[in-house]
Amino acid sequence: MRVPVLSFGRARRCVAVIASLTLPGLLAGACGRRSQALLTAPADPTGSRSAEVDNADGIPVAGWEAGAVRRASAQDAWGGQRGDGAPLSDRVASYELRAVVDPVKHTVEGTEKLHWKNRSDRAVRTLYFHTYLNGFAGPGSTWMTEKARFGQFRSGVDLEAGQWGYIDVQSVAQGGRAAAMRYVQPDGGPPTDRSVLRVDLPEAIPAGGEASLDIKFHDQLPRVTARTGWFGSYHLVAQWFPKIGVLELAGERGAEGPRWNVHEFHMHSEFYADWGSYDLEIVAPRGFTVGSVGGRVGEPREAPEGLVHHFHQDDVHDVAFTVWDGFAPPLRGGYDGPGSPHVDVQVLYPPEYDSSGRAALQATIDALRYFSQTLGPYPYKQVTVVVPPFNATESGGMEYETFFTSIGGSDAVDALVRYVTVHEFGHGYFMGLLASNEFEEPFLDEGINEWWDSRMLENEQLTFDLGWPSRLGFGPPPLHIWDFQWTTGSNLPGRPLADPIAGNSWHRMSSGTYGAVYAHTAVVMHDLEKQLGGDAIARGMKLYYARWHHRHPSAADLREALVDAAPDAAETIRRWFDQQVYGADLVDDAIDEVTSEEILPQPGRVENDGKIVERTADDVAREVADRRAAFDRERHDGTDGPFPFRSVIRTQRHAAEVPQTLLVEFADGSAVRLAWPVGERWHRWVFEKPARVKQARLDPAGSILLDVNKLDDGRTRESHHLPAVRLAADGTTWLETLLSLVSSL
C-alpha cells in the first residue's frame, strides 16, 4: 500500500493520510524518531518466553519466539494438495454469524455458532480464540503497550474519551452447557492484555470429532484507528467476532506435534486462521448501504432491529463488512477469465471521490486478470472494494477475502489509488487464498505481494504529490516502480538490515525494520528472478500457488516450490534464501579503477632482425614522433593514435557475492560483457587493443537492486564534474524558489 505522497499547505487531510498509509515505514508504524525505539516483547525484557502448556490437553501454544520456518511442510499437510473437486478447503472452522449494528452508539450485538473440526489424534477440551477488538480497549493491551513504546501506527490516529473499542464475550456454550473462560497471554504480554481468550469446554472433542459452540458477544467499535472502527456514521467492522485459533499438526509449518497458533494482537502483526464457510446476517437501519465478504443471499428483509442483509461465502478464513448511509450508488464491473467463474466487481465510495472509485474499479479488474493468469484462476464470484470517506482513511488499505479497502480523495492522484488497489487485491491471493501465517512470517504476504504487484505495474510509474508545490510545477518527476522499491527497500545507507525479512512481526529492532518486509522483500525476489533468468520464477510461483492454495504455506514451502520448478538452480535458490531471506547479507560491488595508457616503445635491449640491439631514449623519441606524424597523415576510424592502449579495470566486492556482469565500452564503439569470476573478492581486467576504454559499468541490466550503492557501479576513464554541478544548481534553485514562495504566504 505504499505510494509516495506528501501534502503541504491547507488541511488536505485525506491525501496526508494516504501518505501515511502508503510509505513502507509509516505503514509499519515507522514514523518519526520514536519508531527507532528498540522492539522487545511487551513484558520480560530479557527475551525469555514460555508458551502456555498447562491446558488439560497437554497441547502447547506457540509463543513469542515463534518465527520463520526452515523445514518444508509434509506433502499431506492441511489435507494435501487441493484437487479439482469441491470444496477448495478442509473447512475446519465454519461460522454462522449475526450482527446487529447500532450506527449511533457504534455497537454490534453479535451471536455466533462455531462448527469446529478436531483434526488432531487426541481429544481437545481447551480452545483458544482471538478477541482482537480488545486491543483498542485501553493502555493495558499488548497493541497499545507497543504503540506507546514504538510510536504511532500508520497515520497516527489516537483514541480519545468515548472512542475506545472492545469485545465483551458474554457466554460460550457447548450443547447448552456453559464453558469456562479466561484471558491468557501466550507471547508473555502484559497480564492486562485480553486479545486471546482461553475456553475450557465442559466436554472434550474427540480425536477426529466435531463440535458446535454457541457464543454471544457485544462489540463497542473504536473510532477508526487501525483497520477497524467508525467515523461519523461510517463503519468498517473487522476482527469483530471471537475467532478460533489454528491447531497445527506435525509436519505443518515446522510443527513436530499438535500446537495452538494463536498469538496476541501485536501492533505490527495481522492474522492467521483456518478456512471454513461463513454465513453472515448484518442488521442495519434503513438507508444504510451494507457491503461484506461473500455474496449476497436474496434481498434484505425486515426485522424489528432494521433490515437484515444476508451474505454467504465458502472457503474463506475471515469476514468483515461496512455499513454507511453516505455511499454513492455502487460502481460495477466484471471479470471473465479461464478457470474462474464470472466475477462481479463493485466499488463502494463517497460521491465526492468519484474519480478514485473509477480508478479502483479498473485497477481491480486489471488485477483480477493479472493474478489469475500468473498464479491461478480467481475462485470466487465477487469482489467488493471500499473507498473510505474523509477522516476514515485509517480503515483504508486493508484486505479481506472477496472484500478490501483502498484509498481515495477529492484530489487524490488516480495512479496512487490504482497502486494501493492492486496491492490490496493482491493480498486476496497471498493473505487470502494461500493464507500464510501473518503473525510469524509476514513477508510471505506483505513482501511477496509487494513484489508481485510490482511485476504487474513495472511498465507504469508512481506519481508524487507535494500538494501546492506540485501544482506550481515544482513536484518531483514520476518514479519507476523498481526505482521506488530500491529507494525504500535497500540497505541504505550501506549497512546490513538489523532483521531478516523472514522474522516474525513483533521481534524487530524497530518499526522501520518491520517495514523492510515490504519493499526489501520485493527487491530480494526481483534480484533472484534476474539471477534465474527465463521464466523460472514464473513457473515456481505458479507451482507454489497450485500446491499450497488453501493450505497455509511457510517460507520453506515457497523455497521448495521455486526449487522444484527450477531444479538446475536449486543451489542458487537455497543459498539466496539463506543469505537474503533467512539472513540479511549486504550487497555492495564497486568499480575502483578505470585507466588507459598508451603502450609506447621503451628504451633498452631489444631484438631487431634477429639481432639484439640497444635502443636509446633518443631512438624511442624519434620512433614515436615518426609514427605519430605518419598517423596524422592518414585517415583513421575509432583509434586515438598509432600505438595500442593498455586499459585496466579493477572491481572490488565489499559484501556478499552475487552473480555480476561487467560491461566495458571502448572509444571505437566496441563493447564487451564479462562475468566477475565466482569466489573472487576483487578482480582486475587488462585489455590491450587499439582503442582506449571509455567507461565501465557493473550490472548494466539493472538486475541487482540489493546493491546499496549503485553510484559506484559505473566509472568513466575521465572525470566529469558537470552532472554534479548541474544537480547541485538545480537543487539550490528549487529550494530557493520554494523558500521564497513560503515566505510570501
Polypeptide structure, described:
With 745 residues, the chain is of the alpha+beta class. It has 2 domains: 13-581, Neutral Protease Domain 2 (Neutral Protease, domain 2), CATH 1.10.390.10; 589-720, Immunoglobulin-like, CATH 2.60.40. It is 25% helix and 26% strand. Strands 1, 2, 4, 5, 8, 14, 16, 17 and 18 form a 9-stranded mixed sheet that branches. A 5-stranded mixed sheet has the order 20-21-22-24-23, covered by helices on one side. Strands 6-7-3-11 form a 4-stranded antiparallel sheet, with no helix packed on it. Helix 5 packs across helix 6 (446-456), helix 6 (446-456) crosses helix 9 and helix 8 (481-489) packs across helix 9 (511-532). Mean pLDDT is 86; it is low at 1-50 and 721-745.
Concise description?
This protein is an alpha+beta fold and 745 residues long. Helix content is 25%, strand content 26%.
* Number of β-strand runs: 35
If you compute it from the alpha carbons, what radius of gyration comes out, rounded to the nearest whole angstrom? Answer: 31 Å
Largest sheet features: 9 strands, mixed
Structural class category: alpha+beta
Number of helices: 14
Shape: elongated
Strand content: 25-35%
CATH homologous superfamily placement of the largest domain: Neutral Protease Domain 2
Helical residue percent band = 10-25%
Q: According to CATH, what is the class of the largest domain? A: Mainly Alpha
* Gap from first CA to last CA: 34 Å
Averaged pLDDT: 86
- What is the count of structural domains? 2
Reported by name, the CATH topology of the largest domain is Neutral Protease, domain 2
Which spans of ≥5 residues are poorly predicted at pLDDT below 50?
A: 1-50, 721-745
State the CATH architecture of the largest domain: Orthogonal Bundle
